[in-house]
């Protein structure tokens, strides 16, 4: 009797897990690249999930993130995110044959939301573009978001701070609703250090 009850409870727990909404808080380690901590478990959070960059944390996105096909996924950018400041390191990644074409690359899916923060201090994705603009460096610049092949997507409240070049592309996507996004690309030296084609 007891055994039967246990088996039942276990089955029920499994069913619950399969249909539940999952939330994954992206882990952060000071001074380290936070990309691998996310990509290592992305396959488990590619359906019916929230992926949360938490407020109060500045995430180091030192290497590009490539998302698998996503279905019913919301990615919330409530913390800050930072690109690397090492320009040659970025250029080496962008120039390599394995680079997907964008720092945040999507490969397809349905009902995917990118949602930033409405708190003015948080949710900024800092590209450190000023350093590139200062030298008019246009060699192997990282493109931002390739929100590709998404059917039914939302891009809202996103905030990009001094992006190096290119912000959002939506190739192959349909039914995309983009609103209330902010791109701050103001150079400190607009005459000599301009945010070319950003
Ligand atoms: C995702 O949720 C929907 C209901 O909103 C459900 O029909 C579907 O089976 C779920 N998918 C998975 C893989 O859990
Ligand atoms: C992710 O799923 C794999 C199997 O698909 C499992 O072995 C692993 O424990 C899961 N990881 C997490 C963090 O849930
Ligand atoms: C679409 O995704 C949102 C989360 O962004 C979720 O609340 C909603 O249930 C999803 N829609 C369907 C039809 O599953
Ligand atoms: C988040 O990043 C933006 C842009 O770099 C910056 O202005 C803001 O101060 C940062 N927020 C915190 C809490 O450090």
Automatic annotation (TrEMBL):
The keyword Signal applies. It is an enzyme of class 3 (hydrolase). It is found in: Secreted. It catalyses: [(1->4)-alpha-D-galacturonosyl](n) + H2O = alpha-D-galacturonate + [(1->4)-alpha-D-galacturonosyl](n-1). GO terms for molecular function: galacturan 1,4-alpha-galacturonidase activity. Keywords: Disulfide bond, Repeat, Secreted, Signal. Residues 1-20 form the signal peptide. PANTHER family: EXOPOLYGALACTURONASE C-RELATED, PTHR31736. Specific in hydrolyzing the terminal glycosidic bond of polygalacturonic acid and oligogalacturonates. This is galacturonan 1,4-alpha-galacturonidase. The gene is pgxC_1.
